[in-house]
Amino acid sequence: MLKILRSTLILPIVLLPLLVASTAPTLAQERQGCFMINASGRLINLGELCSEQSLGTGDIQVTLKWSTADDLDLAVTDPSGDQVWYQNPRVASSGELDVDANAGCQADTAVPIENVFWPETQAPTGDYTIAVNLYQRCGGTSGAVPFTITLLNKGNTQTLRGEVDDSDTPIEFPFSVSSQATSPQANSGNVAP
């Protein structure tokens, strides 16, 4: 009798937390993407910071994002004049193109990203230039292709915007690396404010 009484008392104690836990809402299953819940329970969208791909980072990180199947190309020229881009993915100054989306219209992605970076402590000081161009149309699109660049320069993050079209004119953003990061300015093409 004592065994039956013990199991009758213990069973509800063990099962009660499981039943309560299964009825509580789970935010991670309710939303897709990259989110965080802060201390007050507020849902924070971290979509700008997260990516399905692991991106290289360091003293300098230049990340290009756009939302068409077209093949845009990102190139970053370092102070010695070496250019990191799809035909030269690594340069002597340690700059590297580690992600090249929609290259040659092969394996198009709906969330294309290109990324160039210099590992920590390896970015030379001096003047750099970011260039973006429309390399190839994919999937029959037309019109201007808006893009966003996120520039991480020695710990300072800036967002740059522009658009490219069939004119084959690259959009350029110069910036400098020194002990203090400087703001880039758009040099040419169709740059959005």
Give the topology, please.
Layout: H1 2-23, H2 27-30, E1 35-37, E2 43-45, E3 60-66, E4 71-77, E5 83-84, E6 96-100, E7 113-118, E8 126-136, E9 145-153, E10 156-164, E11 171-177
Antiparallel strand pairs: 1-2, 3-7, 3-9, 4-5, 4-8, 6-7, 8-11, 9-10
Largest sheet: 5 strands, antiparallel
Helix and strand run:
HHEEEEEEEEEEE
User: With helices defined by DSSP (H or I, 4 residues minimum), what is the helix count?
Assistant: 2
Q: What's the β-strand tally? A: 11
| CATH-defined topology of the largest domain | Jelly Rolls
Q: What is the count of structural domains? A: 2
Tell me the overall shape.
Answer: globular
CATH architecture type of the largest domain: Sandwich
Low-confidence stretches: 14-35, 188-193
- Walk across the major sheet and give the strand order: 6-7-3-9-10
**Which band does the percent of strand residues land in?**
35-45%
Short key terms for the protein model shown above:
five-stranded antiparallel beta sheet; 11 strands; disordered C terminus; mainly beta; Jelly Rolls; 13% helix; 2 helices
Describe the structure.
The protein has two helices and eleven strands. It has helices at 2-23, 27-30, and strands at 35-37, 43-45, 60-66, 71-77, 83-84, 96-100, 113-118, 126-136, 145-153, 156-164, 171-177. The radius of gyration is 24 Å and the shape is globular.
Quick description:
With 193 residues, the protein is mostly beta strands. It has helices at residues 2-23, 27-30, and strands at residues 35-37, 43-45, 60-66, 71-77, 83-84, 96-100, 113-118, 126-136, 145-153, 156-164, 171-177.
